[in-house]
Write a structure and sequence with these properties.
The chain has 759 residues and is an alpha/beta fold. 39% of the residues lie in helices and 18% in strands. A hairpin with a 5-residue loop joins strand 29 and strand 30. About 1% of the residues have low confidence.
Length: 759
């Protein structure tokens, strides 16, 4: 900025290839062209090339640039040759410019420079620097700002905050970044986020410092017991352990559109006995007052969480950490509706690449190649709330592509489009006297001012080493991610709150049954025994609601049966099964044997368009595609009839079914017979080791030189309302099956060709 130089910016990730740096092929009206990428553009136009995240790139990608850095020479794919300015000028004295052009020689500007940014790898994780590459740079070591300068910055950020408190917070941050702390295995404290935290403190001077520190540095989730004591002793030393004596914000009182600044909402939050109003960014839809939703039942702990989220939303993007099934997505949806945001859900999966996040290739009808912006980019331009679901699953190198979007609200895409922060875009427009149209022709777009990111994640595995090869055990919340968000933890509900929730959402559930269930889960969640805790995770709030919906429909059913099904107790190891049975007897839940069970007849009858299995009946479906209804040879027997009656109960509640059983017990037969009786057309999908998320949804094929996508059985079933049977569901990689979760839960999914399924 000071030297008024133009910049080419690349965020390196594990997906960066040579073509991203040198030249990429594109097809225009049937001919392949080479289009210069950042390194070549910077060299020929004399710009500064910024390479961010050297430690993220694969080892053999960056040496492509070695010769360009050393001698300013590079052979390009399209036959041109970049040559250093001095040699080119010497040749110019002997030959004409036309001759040099016919030899395809291009001059590298003498203004071309490369600035690479990276972090030291033995301390952090990543690929170590390649020595030949390192020798071509002048290295500088950049440190944290000195304490005094940092203090002055923070004083200006929070003028209403007592000076003593500011210095205590900063001392804490510097202590946690010191060498001694990292020897204890504590990740670095995100010092840059202190400024955002002080903006919050400035509006809420009565907020306790301990709560604030937990949002910046959620040590209770990341660290084990030793880490806790270490951090709390530091907190204690700087007198920041004041969480008990000061009240947390209790609830959001009202939300209204702001008159002062456009695109914002006035939010009033009650803290202790005061009500404080402040402005936060808001979406374009109509705002909805708190507690007015029919599907969201407010509990004291959730309303406190929403109030805290509002505070953080004032300054920065958020991340919600919570175990599976504890209501993260529901809270996110409620938060978005309160502020009038449209939601853009993006399900993250393990082998997602940077391209899946930002832009994908596709072909136009005439066979030209083009780039399609991903949902994430569209959300940024339109000012939606982007929900990154499952941030703990993605490879960390891929997420780094977003760090610039999260920190500076800027983004460079593969096709050369640049997204700029709203106010930078406006100043640029003013300086150049350009219209929006002219800037868009130069492919520069603004990021909408109210765009925000809300990430959802499962808690990091405490004590898992960061280098452990097992992906599921990876400690994902490292120093780099700590700087990107403010963190909020979703705690499991208290017993009384969960009771209220269940009665609100499943009103007819028998009281006694619900109480027994909650007693059981409460005792399982409280134990220190790891086997019992893993059982508790399969009785999450989501599962409890599912059980209660079924009990309110069929009150005479046994609870033990429902719990055993939810925990899949038949497939548990013997220790866990014994501990589950013990907990069931302790909570006085007995499996009542049905005295008439032996004689009870299980028959299936179809009379006048009504199917009855056992005691459950339902009208038969009349399909318009008869040939898709299965028809199999099936001999009725009591055991399979019981299974089908059970399936029908859940099917009528609108649940999705999972059949688990050993090989050869007749799972396929039961499903086909079930659909045959119901007269439902089915679509059939078989998963295997090589199933990817793309093949689940679309089958690409080439017709007349154009890539067309054909719907997979999954998409057809969604469109026509057929039943989708997924066989061998356990054979596919988990990241594939977790995509189905979003579809099953919320009825939303984005297909590879840019279409989307909505509920």
């Amino acid at each position: 900025e000071l030297t008024k130089r133009e910049v080419e910016y690349v965020a390196l990730s594990r997906d960066t290839t040579e073509t991203d740096l040198k030249q990429r092929r594109e097809i225009r009206s049937g001919t392949a062209f080479y289009i210069d990428q950042c390194a070549v553009r910077a060299a020929t136009q004399g710009r500064v090339l910024v390479l961010e995240g050297l430690e993220k790139a694969e080892r053999n990608v960056l040496p492509v640039l070695n010769n360009l850095l050393e001698n300013r020479e590079m052979q390009l794919e399209d036959g041109r040759f970049l040559m250093s300015a001095e040699r080119y000028d010497k040749l110019l004295q002997e030959h004409t410019k036309e001759e040099l052009d016919s030899w395809k020689i291009v001059r590298v500007s003498e203004d071309f420079r490369v600035i690479a940014l990276g972090i030291p790898v033995p301390k952090y994780k990543g690929n170590p620097l390649d020595p030949p590459l390192r020798s071509r740079f002048q290295a500088r070591d950049i440190y944290y700002l000195p304490f005094k300068d940092q203090l002055e910055l923070l004083y200006t950020a929070g003028p209403n905050v007592a000076a003593e408190r500011v210095s205590q917070l900063l001392s804490l941050a510097t202590t946690l970044c010191s060498q001694e702390s990292s020897n204890l295995g504590l990740p670095d404290f995100p010092v840059d986020n202190l400024i955002a935290a002080l903006h919050v403190l400035n509006t809420f001077p009565m907020l306790s410092s301990q709560q604030l520190v937990q949002r910046l540095y959620p040590y209770k989730s990341i660290l084990g017991k030793d880490g806790h004591t270490a951090v709390e002793s530091v907190l204690n030393r700087f007198e920041l352990l004041d969480g008990r004596c000061q009240a947390a914000p209790s609830n959001v009182v009202s939300v209204s559109t702001s008159n002062k600044c456009e695109g914002h909402a006035d939010v009033t939050v009650q803290t202790a006995d005061k009500e404080i109003t402040f402005q936060v960014p808001a979406g374009s839809k109509e705002l909805r007052p708190p507690n007015s939703s029919l599907t969201f039942i407010n509990t004291p702990s959730h309303s406190q969480l929403l109030a805290e989220m509002m505070q953080s939303h004032m300054v920065k993007d958020l991340c919600l950490i919570g175990a599976k099934g504890c209501g993260k997505s529901v809270i996110a949806r409620e938060f978005a509706e309160m502020l009038g945001y449209s939601i853009e859900p993006v399900m993250l999966y393990q082998d997602m690449t940077a391209r899946d996040l930002l832009q994908q290739r596709y072909t136009l009808p005439n066979g030209d190649t083009a780039w399609r912006p991903s949902p994430l980019v569209i959300a940024a331009m339109e000012g939606k709330l982007l929900i990154l679901d499952g941030i703990h699953r993605v490879n960390l190198g891929t997420l780094a592509v977003l760090s610039r979007l999260l920190h500076d609200r800027e983004l460079d895409l593969y096709d050369g489009t640049r997204l700029l922060q709203w106010d930078r875009y406006q100043t640029l427009k003013g300086q150049l006297q350009f219209s929006d149209q002219q800037l868009q022709e130069r492919s520069i777009f603004p990021i909408h001012p109210s765009f925000r990111v809300l990430a959802l994640a499962e808690p990091p595995v405490v004590g898992a080493s960061s280098s452990s090869s097992n992906r599921g055990q990876q400690q994902w919340l490292g120093p780099e991610l700590l700087t990107m968000f403010l963190y909020h933890t979703v705690t499991p509900l208290a017993k009384s709150e969960e009771m209220g929730l269940i009665h609100g959402l499943a009103p007819n559930v028998p009281k006694e049954a619900a109480e027994q269930l909650l007693r059981l889960t409460d005792s399982l969640r409280r134990t220190k025994d790891p086997t019992a805790q893993s059982l508790a995770s399969s009785l999450s709030t989501r599962q409890l609601l599912r059980i209660c919906r079924r009990l309110s429909q069929y009150p005479e059913e046994s609870i033990a049966h429902a719990v055993n099904k939810a925990c899949l107790s038949r497939f548990l190891p013997s220790l866990a099964r014994a501990s589950l049975e013990k907990s069931l007897t302790n909570s006085s839940i007995q499996d009542t044997p049905d005295p008439a069970g032996q004689t009870r007849d299980y028959t299936c009858v179809v009379q006048e368009g009504v199917l009855t299995i056992g005691k459950v009946s339902t009208p038969i479906y009349s399909p318009n595609q008869k040939m898709k209804v299965p028809d199999v040879l099936f001999y009725d027997n009591p055991q399979h009839m019981m299974v089908m009656e059970d399936m029908l109960k859940d099917f009528l509640l609108g649940e999705h079914l999972l059949l688990v059983g050993n090989q050869g017990v007749g799972k396929n037969k039961i499903v086909d017979r079930f659909l045959h009786l119901l007269n439902r057309p089915r679509e059939y999908l078989q998963l295997h080791r090589d199933t990817t998320v793309q093949t689940l949804t679309l089958q690409p094929s080439v017709r007349d030189g154009i890539i067309t996508y054909e719907d997979s059985p999954l998409v057809k079933a969604v469109k026509h309302g057929h039943i989708l049977v997924i066989d061998e569901a356990d054979k596919a990689p988990t990241n594939v099956t977790c995509i189905l979760k979003a579809l099953v839960e919320s009825g939303e999914m984005i297909l590879a060709d840019g279409r989307r399924i909505i509920s």
